[in-house]
Amino acid sequence: MTTLSYNEAMKTQLLVLAAGMGSRFGGVKQIESVGPRGETVLEYSVYDALKAGFDEIVFLIRSSIEADFRKTVLSRLPPRINFSLAFQETDSLLTRKELAAATGRRKPWGTGHALLCAASRLDAPFAVINADDSYGREALRIVRSQLCRLSPGSVEFCMAGYGLGNVMSPWGPVSRGICAVDPDGFLRGVTEHVSVLEEHGDFVSVGASGVRTILPSDAPVSMNLWGLTPAVFPLADGLFRDFLERQAGSADAEFYLPYIVDSLVKLDKVRVRVLPTREKHFGLTYRGDLSETRARITRMIAEGVYPDPLWGKTDLPL
Fold first, then answer.
1. What does DSSP assign to residue 272?
2. How many CA atoms lie within 13 A of 300 on its CB side?
3. Which of 81, 89, 222, 239 has its CA 20 to 30 A from that of 201?
């Protein structure tokens, strides 16, 4: 594995995945207001990332929401923040043959496809987050700290490992990637549980056939806070081409980022260090999550975690 000694001054980037359709939420949740001045969840995550030491932000969006995104998010960011845009569309990165097979497709191909769509903007060790989730400043800090030990060509990655009990929604079942971790703290694999809910204090995974499995409350979970390097892109592209060979004709199949990591770990192409965090994730999965997210932001402002307004005079290390 290619690594470097710790270097606090090393450039690190943050990729924010903001191109999702928001089907369960019922709208474009990436630009939904949760702060007192109209701030979005992703703005608070960007603030946390900058406080954690990240140098540059890359926003991955769809062209159809660009105007709203610029008006509701980018217009509020201080000019000194270094950011760029990347775009994910249904036809992004597909060959003519793949496009011909995907004539019925109306939406992009998932978070793994989103990662590849941002490749041209990422040239240093980087973290990946979803735009509609709040990950906690400490989780971003520990991932950034690990990235400072990696070279751009390293195939040793990392991820924040949340406890299952800290990443649930009271409004309905959620999809969660449960991680198997070896004794040295490296990822063995990720199993996607597509319907996890809390029942009478238990965390229950409901399978496609209705089989119910109780999961431990402290089971390590991937919330898509990954620490990667540009070395992931050629490896992920090969997996994407294999995926399209099988699924190009599907209207719904998705190429997930956890699938990329899980596949590369099992092929012994990469190692992924799991960094445990006690942070409590929150965000917008369902419409009912909106009021709770707003209440949490209000409490965190009162506690001094965030300023109000968020992008007023701050002590950001820019």
1. E
2. 22
3. 222
Q: How far is C-alpha 233 from the chain's CA centre?
A: 16
**In whole angstroms, what is the distance from residue 281 CA to residue 276 CA?**
13
Residue with tokens 């009162």: 302
- Which band of pLDDT confidence, cut at 50, 70 and 90, is reported for residue 50? very high
Could you give the domains of the chain?
A: 13-161+221-302 (3.90.550.10)
In terms of Cβ atoms closer than 10 Å to its own Cβ (0-12, 13-18, 19+), residue 61 is: buried
- Rounded mean pLDDT, 16-34: 67
CA dist list (Å): 300 to 157, 225, 303: 31, 21, 5
Strands of the chain (E only): list them.
13-17, 56-61, 83-87, 126-130, 133-134, 156-163, 174-181, 187-199, 202-206, 212-215, 220-228, 271-277, 282-283
In degrees, rounded to 5, the angle at the alpha carbon of residue 255 between the alpha carbons of residues 251 and 257 is 150
Quick one: three-class SS letters along 137-190? HHHHHHHHHHHCCECCCCCEEEEEEEEHHHCCCCCCCEEEEEEEECCCCEEEEE
What are 294's two structure tokens?
A: 């707003």
Half-sphere exposure of 251 (CA within 13 A, CB side): 2
Q: What is the pLDDT of residues 81-92, one digit of tens each?
A: 999 999 999 899
